[in-house]
């Protein structure tokens, strides 16, 4: 028989009270774990998507022009001293310090042409890197493989009145429409995509490109630094980061994160109050018992140790169960909360140890006053019979 | 030299504007090995006297000396240590810990003693055998009769071999037959050398003791 035996036996033989106390704190911890894990998993999901899809760095020719564009309507532009990017310069992008962060480089050559009497923007692309970068593209028909295969945006297909498998004459050459893109809601809907080398030949721009999109793996990478590094390698190009969309999402996520933490704070506060009230009630209920302990010679510190040890066991259990329940909750909620279905749950030992540590700290703090109160009980008052 | 020396002990309680004098100058001297019963009606101050004697209730004035130690001169938690080493308490309502078995209840005073668990277990078992409960070690208090609970309380009080055994109305909640058994047990303990101080209002219990002190309105008659 040691002091902790008293605590353990009390908890073992008063299961309902222990369960109530554990559940009170566990709910608080589980809420924190769920919210923290969800926000982190969602953050990771967005960052991963940002890495996989979509360019986040744009390389365009340096010019001294002013774009005349208002509300999405292009009014042409005034451009002089136009320079072009040499295709071979693009290879330099892979030599920058942060080259490992580069997921894909998609060069493009653009040119306005007429097809069947319609003005069309022809885009020469490297289909392999373009399809990797634009994973949201849904192609009806087949992906282009041969040099004379082309891909049409949905609007272009409608205007030109061609479907997958049909042929189209472009600047005297016959091309096969291998596929048509599902509506994307972007400028891609109006474009005609062909292989880069073919379009360069047609437009007389061999070895030159109009622009390049770069997808950088940006989970924690310094996109600003990468922009500078690329600009140094290709001085004739204007390099800029396309961050606004992702930043907007991250900002929304940040707000959700703050809201989550506030919610978690409130739940933890309520959990602590439950522990405090239950421990205080338990101490008051055990007045006689504490009086007996004091009468038979237990010191104040002994009484405190008994109460705090009980609190520690309950808190530890609440922490472990709260972490498990919280991760379970996060796993169930993630598919509904994340933007992609294959979002991964973030398992983090910091959250595991943090939640258990937090439960322990809160449990002990909430029990400190009840323990002090118990230790200060006058044995005569406590026993009353004497 | 007396084991317990109480000199001119006074105890006052304040209740609002009223001052109640529970003890009004009590002098008692008890030798080692004595069996004393303190008798008196309800409100006579006998329970207050026992709690003062037990180091749990500071007297308003006067001195309490036990085994050569001035109890209320002890600093800090030394008084608690003194109780743990020298005193055994038997309470009127037994006050067993409901979630501990008979054996664990008896081991309770040893929980704060530096001693191996097997030795503690053995001491508690011996104490329970001494009060005739060797076969009910693992019973919880609610699985024991009133008399058995009283015996467990006595075993708990003697497990650390205290100098003095203090009992407050130990037969107050028992029927007459069980009361006789319990009083016989106290007598046997005293015969074995245990000093016993018992508070009771039952005159029949006085016949088991060596000496009876009668208290009325806080004064020894």
Question: Can you lay out the helices and strands and say which pair or pack?
Answer:
The complex is a heterodimer of chains A (386) and B (221).
Chain A lengths: L2 H11 L1 H38 L4 E5 L4 E5 L2 E6 L6 E2 L15 E14 L2 E8 L1 H7 L5 E3 L7 E4 L1 H7 L6 E4 L2 E9 L9 E5 H8 L4 E2 L1 E6 L6 H11 L3 E5 L2 H42 L1 H9 L4 H38 L11 H27 L3 H5 L3
Parallel strand pairs in A: 6-11, 8-10
Antiparallel strand pairs in A: 1-13, 1-14, 2-3, 4-12, 5-6, 5-13, 7-10, 8-11, 9-10
Helix pairs in contact in A: 1-9, 2-7, 2-9, 2-10, 7-10, 9-10
Chain B lengths: L3 E12 L2 E13 L4 E5 L6 H8 L7 E6 L2 E2 L7 H9 E4 L11 H6 L9 H14 L15 H13 L5 E5 L7 H16 L3 E6 L10 E6 L2 E2 L1
Helix pairs in contact in B: 4-5, 5-6
Count the strands of chain B?
Answer: 10
**Overall SS class of chain A:** alpha+beta
Biggest pleated sheet of chain A: 10 strands, mixed
In helices, the fraction of residues of chain A equals 40-55%
Shape of chain B: globular
Give the termini separation of chain A. 27 Å
- Our Rg estimate of chain A from Cα atoms comes to 33 Å
Query: Domains counted in the coordinates of chain B: how many?
Result: 1
The oligomeric status of these chains comes to heterodimer
Overall 3D form of chain A: elongated
| Number of separate helices of chain A | 11
Which strands sit side by side, in order, in the main sheet of chain B? 6-7-8-3-9-10
What's the number of extended β-strand segments of chain A? Answer: 14
CATH architect. name of chain B: 3-Layer(aba) Sandwich
List low-pLDDT spans of chain B. none
How widely separated are the two ends of chain B? 24 Å
Q: Estimate the strand proportion of chain B.
A: 25-35%
What is the H level of CATH, i.e. the homologous superfamily of chain B? P-loop containing nucleotide triphosphate hydrolases
What structural class do you assign from the helix and strand content of chain B? Answer: alpha/beta
Q: Into which percentage range does the β-strand content of chain A fall? A: 15-25%
